[in-house]
Give the backbone structure.
Amino acid sequence: MQQAEPATVDPVPPAESEPYRFYVLGVLMLVYALNFIDRQLITILAPDLKRDLGISDSDFGFLYGTAFGVFYAVFGIPLGKLADHWSRVRLLAVGLALWSALTTLSGFAKNFTQLGAARIGVGIGEATASPCAYSLVSDYFPPRRRALALSIYSAGLYVGGGISLAFGSSIAAEWNAHFADGSAPLGLVGWQVAFMTMGIPGLLLALLVTTMREPMRGRFDPPHDGAAAAPISPLADFVRSLESVLPPFTLFAAGRHGPIALAVNALGALLACLLVWGMQRLTGDLVQWIAFALGCYAVFSWGQNLRLRDHATFDAVCRSRALVGVTLGYGLVTIVGYAMTAFAPLYAIEVLGADPREAGFWLGGAGTLGGIIGVVGCGALADRLAGNSHNHRRVWVIAGTAIGSALLYTLMFTASDRSLYYALNFVGWIFFAGTLGGSSGAVVNAVPARVRGIATAGFVLGSTLLGLALGPYSAGKFSSLLGGLGNGLLVLLVVVPFGLIALAVAERDLRRKSLNPA
């Protein structure tokens, strides 16, 4: 790795800027589609996984959410830092190849532990995507067009989700039907083949990603006073960032700042251990809470290290009420959203009696179409409301769509008719995707260009640790405690008001800044 931007940096000549920037946006959208194909595929295969691997709803929630989400969030921190100082194109290509390879290897899993290990690897690889893509898009599109551009990028999420449900269920069902006599090659069953089939295209797309130009960093943004100097070596800076989140190296990283910093970090580790002990006694699920506590401790260690080593970045990211408010607000809302995403196919199959291929077709189509309408439409609405200087209005879009999605999910998981369930799922996706359409633009316009990668990683971190690491697991756990999957999903709606409070704090801070710009 070089010490500064790679020699391939190209500011994109004006004569080709418009078509080329949309070419890049299209490639990034495909990357995000594969990101969510590999993440979401497990949901439509849940009945087969529960049967063949002998797992419960809470175990499935762990595989879908916690095993993937904690490592996705934790590694997003050092990878976001690397995205701020090294070639984002190269980093994205490496990450795409890694998560696609591990999705393919998921097809060889023989038990819960092996599949969990593969999901951890997928999470680490996918942690490169959003920091790199958000930063690249921000350097290809000016501020007034970023929310729409990021919404188009984010539409890949819903395209991928739809493909994974529709094609994943069909691949598994057709394979099982064709080899019903037990003559399948290597003894593979349908869900294993679905993982392999969906993972391989990402390896090819990684080659295409390497051909993209690396744009000039911060080309549309004014220079910032107090901007931190570039690190001596991006690789060395990445390793130091990794040490700040990966135990037990976190203790060594803290110790470099003196005995007080080491004692504070050790106290954080002790509190994480107490969290594991208490929640294990309460729920009986040790692995879930080890992973979640690991994520919380990693965030604590990273914040402590960042404050001591790079105070300017710490202030710009961790002390931004706007960024923290949007991250917490969106994260709390996604507790419900990720739970719905994880269990909607299983609810249709087990509660409403749908055939897996039927559920995959209708839920996949609803997720794709509704998601694209929601994220692009609300991203465009957020841009129109915000203009060039009213970023706080983007928070209105987040809050409004959060309320709408909560109302739709209430109706959805009390429906007894499959047709009504599918229709409500479609409308629910419009609202849930709309929260991301408003959030993405609010985040990248709330921080300086020099910290967008790490700020995006922080945003992803919040929504992941809150939404993905808690939502699916909690829904599965409550479904067992309350005697029904629908009840387990509906009880999570109690977190939505707290998300709205966090969004109100962010809106107030952004409003103040728009009225009194620095």
Summary: The CA atoms of residues 23 and 258 lie 49 Å apart. Residues 1-16, 225-231 have pLDDT under 50 and may be disordered. The radius of gyration is 22 Å.
